[in-house]
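B., you asked whether I could sanity-check this one before it goes into the benchmark set. Here's the sequence:
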Amino acid sequence: MPVAAVLVFLFSLTASAYAFDFSGWDAILKKNTRPANYGGIEYTGFDYAALRGSREFDALFAGLDSFPPSELHGRDETLAFWINVYNIFAVKLVRDHYPVAGIKDVGSLFSPVWKKPAGKVGGKSYSLDDIEQGILRPMKEPGIHFAIVCASVSCPDLRPEAYTASALKDQLKSQAVLFLANGGKGLRIDRDKMTAHLSKIFGWYEKDFDASGGVIGFINSRGGSIPPGYAAEYLPYNWDLNTVR
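And here's what the prediction gave me:
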């Protein structure tokens, strides 16, 4: 075997040895997500109650605590890892305080849930804000906003599979397309009033879409088809828990 091929093979073995195994999370998602409807909004519900006392979920959480993120290889692996971690930590916060009407109930006005310690990676404590604002947003991938899920009805849906480096580009595009196709929380076009009703996500994170042609450019690249000259308004945001109902 040529030396170059040997080096590539050895590198792939090394990379795979350090990649975190999200197969347990993948199985949990497949088992506990199903279609739901609440307040007229269709979404993917998650069965938080089913995770009470779950050894599989606790083992997943413990595995993250011992995993060194310094061993992640490349942008896609890093993005996929931290998207999965955000979603796992959000589920853990709800699971540990269940039943709650919404994830915001885990925190308070002076101690919002986003800034509370949510879990550990490599022995270091992270909040949801630490992951979203400190790690993911600086990587300048607007697709994260349709992959990380803040456990609420109007959030993007939990994908019923774990994110992986190899499939990440397709997964992020699919998530954005599915979100925009949901008229209850992603995008609804009113042609009579020439108005595009958008998720508030596009207002909160408007600057993150600048490199993708702005909010309208990004939406139209994901099948949104907002005609020129349309006004933009934001849909109400439902913070109730994205549980199964």
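One thing to flag: The CA atoms of residues 71 and 178 lie 32 Å apart. Otherwise nothing jumped out at me.
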